[in-house]
Design goal:
Chain A: It comes from Halomarina rubra. Chain A: Pfam families: HTH_24, HTH_HVO_0163_N. Chain A: This is Winged helix-turn-helix transcriptional regulator. Chain B: Keywords: Membrane, Transmembrane, Transmembrane helix. The complex is a heterodimer. Helix content of chain A is about 60%, strand content about 15%. Chain A is an alpha+beta fold. Chain A has 2 domains: about 60 residues, Arc Repressor Mutant, subunit A, CATH 1.10.10; about 100 residues, Arc Repressor Mutant, subunit A. Chain B is an all-alpha fold. Chain B has one domain. Chain B contains 3 helices and no strands. In chain B, helix 1 runs antiparallel to helix 2 and helix 2 packs antiparallel against helix 3. At the A-B interface, helix 7 and helix 9 of A face helix 1, helix 2 and helix 3 of B.
Chain lengths: ~170, ~100
């Protein structure tokens, strides 16, 4: 395996769920070069690829499809904060989660949309149609949360939307 | 004309320009994610800051007249204030649309 290719493979194994742009940034290589090596690594099943919400993420092949989707979402700082609260509380009402994390309801709902869609979080409704949030697979989620890493540009965009949502809501 | 302006102006133009490129980039990424009118307006408001630095650069390089630059700057202030006011005013209608109450 070429030196560059093993660097790409090592980076994917060290930060499972890393997306393409971030990979290019941390390795300081040309995008075409990274793409070429990723294609070769995929052909030999050394790396798995997932396209989710307009981004392409890369994983060691040992992660199953649910884990791959979970890692992609947990790389978002705010989504990780929401999941951490649910790990502590086990079950919580959306208003309480928003308050504990310190985000506007609109921010929470946007992240919940994806977390529910990818089956990390479930919305349970009682007889009066009141929603309670629970983690679909708490143990696996806790394990993945420790492995998820967020990129600096991703964190900045997350914090920007937190700020704007709060400013416009209050 | 460039010699008439101090290095302080050049430095503040660079800092403001660099900072607004970063902010406008964040606002663009946020708008692409959310696709709401509020985020479009916040993006446009921040974009006026970038245009402000750009016109300042044009003036320093003698490509735009001082008087034109002055008018442009205050015109951009009007645009910035306008975008933010509309963003604040339309928050409620955006919210109801987001939860599907109108559809």
């Amino acid at each position: 395996m070429s030196d560059t290719r093993s660097r790409v493979a090592e980076r994917v194994h060290a930060t499972p769920g890393i997306h393409f742009n971030e990979l290019v940034r941390v390795l300081d290589l040309a995008p075409g070069q990274v793409q070429y090596h990723l294609d070769r690594l995929r052909k030999t099943d050394s790396v798995a690829e997932l396209r989710l919400y307009g981004r392409t993420h890369y994983y060691p092949p040992s992660y199953d499809p649910w884990e791959r989707r979970a890692l992609a979402l947990l790389a978002r700082e705010t989504a990780a904060d929401v999941v951490a609260v649910l790990l502590d509380e086990r079950r919580a009402r959306p208003a309480d989660v928003a308050e504990t994390v310190g985000i506007a309801r609109s921010t929470l709902e946007w992240h919940l949309g994806r977390l529910v869609e990818q089956d990390l979080v479930r919305k349970e409704r009682d007889a009066r149609n009141r929603v309670t949030l629970v983690l679909a697979r708490p143990e696996e989620t806790a394990w993945l949360l420790r492995r998820a890493t967020s990129s600096l540009p991703g964190r900045l965009v997350d914090r920007f939307t937190r700020l704007v949502d709060r400013l416009l809501e209050e | 004309m460039g010699a008439g302006h101090g290095s302080g102006l050049a430095l503040s133009l660079m800092l403001a320009g660099g900072g607004s490129v970063l902010l406008v980039g964040l606002a663009a990424a946020a708008f692409v994610q959310r696709r709401s009118r509020s985020y479009l307006l916040v993006f446009l408001a921040l974009a006026t800051l970038l245009v402000r630095s750009a016109t300042g650069l044009l003036m320093v390089n003698g490509l735009v007249d001082d008087a034109v630059h002055h008018t442009l700057e205050h015109g951009l202030d009007v645009a910035l204030v306008g975008f933010l006011l509309v963003a604040v005013y339309t928050v409620r209608s955006d919210r109801t649309r987001a939860t599907g109450e109108r559809r």
